[in-house]
Amino acid sequence: MNELFAAEPSVCKSAAELKLLLGLFGPYAGRYLVEYPAESGWFNLVVSSFSGAGEVEQERIKSLLRRARDASRLLVRKGLAWNSSDLWLENALHHMRQSPPTFSELVSADGAQGTKALLDLELSPAAGERICGVPEEYVRVCRTLLLINEELYLLDPYLKLNTKRVRDVLKAIFDVLPKGKCKRVVFVARASEVIGDMRTEVALGDFRNEMTRLMNDADVRPGFLLEYWFVRDETSRTKMHGRYLLSIKGGVRLDQGFQTQADGRRVDVGPIDKATHDDLWSIFHEGDHDMTVVDKLSVRCQ
Fold it and tell me: Which of 42, 61, 225, 266 makes a 20 to 30 Å CA pair with 207?
């Protein structure tokens, strides 16, 4: 999951083929297509490869590429070496020889040198997997969403920030955030599971201290906001069941939540499909639920 692919700019011969290629990627698929060479280079090279097509076809190509960018199907990875005197394939294979390789797969026009031709590219609809329940693996499968979103929700009924198993995972996640766009993170947990009936100023103060320490250790930017919502769902129609990393651009399902697992136990993870994402976004971002938020803490980086 969270694999990065690269495609030769001339690999597609029609707008239909480009639509097919781009449709294999994005947050709902759990894999991404990198614009290589970086920034506007790949985009322009794709458009140039259709210079002999009609005006209508060229406009379709540009529209498909723009929509793919907006949907985060396409990602820009700055700093990837590019030698303009070499062919695209030679440049891309250089990154495949790195340890670990930059890309999981290369898509080329003819499938040469171990690459995949477009028609031979067989990918599952969603790139779920079983990971070892350790902090670095949680970060690996969530990294892209951590970097490209300004706002994140960590949904887990058992998100006890004052326990080491949870704190270690969250620390690894927060160490990534300063490298991206994130300005706000919201933890959502079931009050009965994380604070029980101990809703005292002392108990909430302990959680606030942990939040402050988490932000300070990660060296987040001034203005960054961290919130902790404690909800009750015992008598509500809406329930907290699954455990997710949620953003406006997609989400990741984490069957065991945000905590390390003993003895190398493995955890099922996978991208959230669009229907589930839209439902969760409506509940937790837009407030379309009947759960009760019994306490809410917030800490802002000064």
Answer: 266
- DSSP for 202-236, please give it: HHHHHHHHHHHHHHHHHTPPTT-EEEEEEEE-TTS
Q: Which structural domains are found in the chain, ordered by start?
A: 3-120 (3.40.50), 129-300 (3.30.870)
pLDDT digits (tens, 9 = 90+) for 191-223: 999 987 666 777 888 899 999 999 999 989 999
Rounded distance, CA 246 to CA 153, Å? 5
The whole-number pLDDT of residue 199 equals 65
Annotate 177-197 with b (16+ C-beta within 10 A) or e (fewer): beebebbbbbbbbbbeebbee
Task: Tell me how long the chain is.
Answer: 302
Place of tokens 């998100």: 159
pLDDT at 198 (0 to 100): 62
Interval 115-130 mean pLDDT: 88
What's the mean per-residue pLDDT of the chain? 93
Task: Please state, for a pLDDT cut of 70, what percent of the chain lies above it.
Answer: 98
Task: Please state the φ and ψ torsions of residue 41, each to the nearest 5 degrees.
Answer: -60, -55
Q: Within 10 A of 237 (CB to CB), how many other CB atoms are there?
A: 8
Distance between terminal CA atoms of the chain?
Answer: 35
